[in-house]
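Lab notebook, bench 4. The sequencing result for the construct came back, and we need a structural model before the next group meeting so we can plan mutations. Quick request posted to the team channel:

Model the 3D structure of this chain.
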Amino acid sequence: MSLSPSSPLSSAPHSSSVPAPRARDNLIARLRAAGCVFAEDEAALLLAAATDQAELDRLTDRRVAGIPLEHVLGWAEFHGQRILVDDGVFVPRRRTEFLVDLAAGRWLADRAAEAVPRAAVVVDLCCGSGALGAVVAGLLRSSGVELHAADIDPAAVRCARRNLAPLGGQLYEGDLYAALPVGLRNRVDLLLVNAPYVPTAAIGLMPPEAREHESPVALDGGSDGLAVLRRVLAGAGDWLAVGGRLLVETSEAQATELIAAVSAAGLAGEAVHSEEHDVTVVLATRPAHR
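Done. Here's the predicted structure in token form:
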């Protein structure tokens, strides 16, 4: 987790049950020795989470053992929201905030001329914690959202249910579109997908926090990283409404091949790159006639 002193995460208050000055100094030293780059910020978060010294020790032991901070805390900050994240579940990355902003922005721009914008039908596919669906639902709350999410990993579905059920979201477990109810065919306005796109051979180059503590199914995109995304693109046209958009996160190097796959699926494709987030999003829109 990349934190800065101005981050809401790093400004969390200390627990009143922990002797702050001494505990904080000892904690920072332990975290720094374990290789935590943002030791001061992480210390503030752990102190805020602990109700007593015993709990602080337990949380710290997990963190210095290499468990991702988000799994230690049980939540991650994403687009200003606190998203619950269980052990083993993919931690939402800050770069993916670009995808949700793009999705919500395009939908709102399309609806600007409508006196009473209709509710968007949103599907968070390969949902992990459900972070994308949760944030987009918040961004579109003025017009309403019919929210659905699915993942092949049972642990991810359980986690996403905790984040999305309070928003009225429906959760499904299964392999891509096979998990979705048939009633969603030809109805989806926004299909949000953060599927794995790391080539199998590159998994070993990922930080240990990811490759050792997140589900492999959330990371491994096959030999060229595009195995799952090709399947997503091939089937999207059967689920999107006319004018509906699929948005997938990918790398800039993979975008050209994905745009070709979009065209092969009878959809209109566009790649949008963010220098700020260092990420590329491929959009696929269902035309009136395919």
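Residues 97-111 form the longest helix (15 residues).
Will bring this to the meeting.
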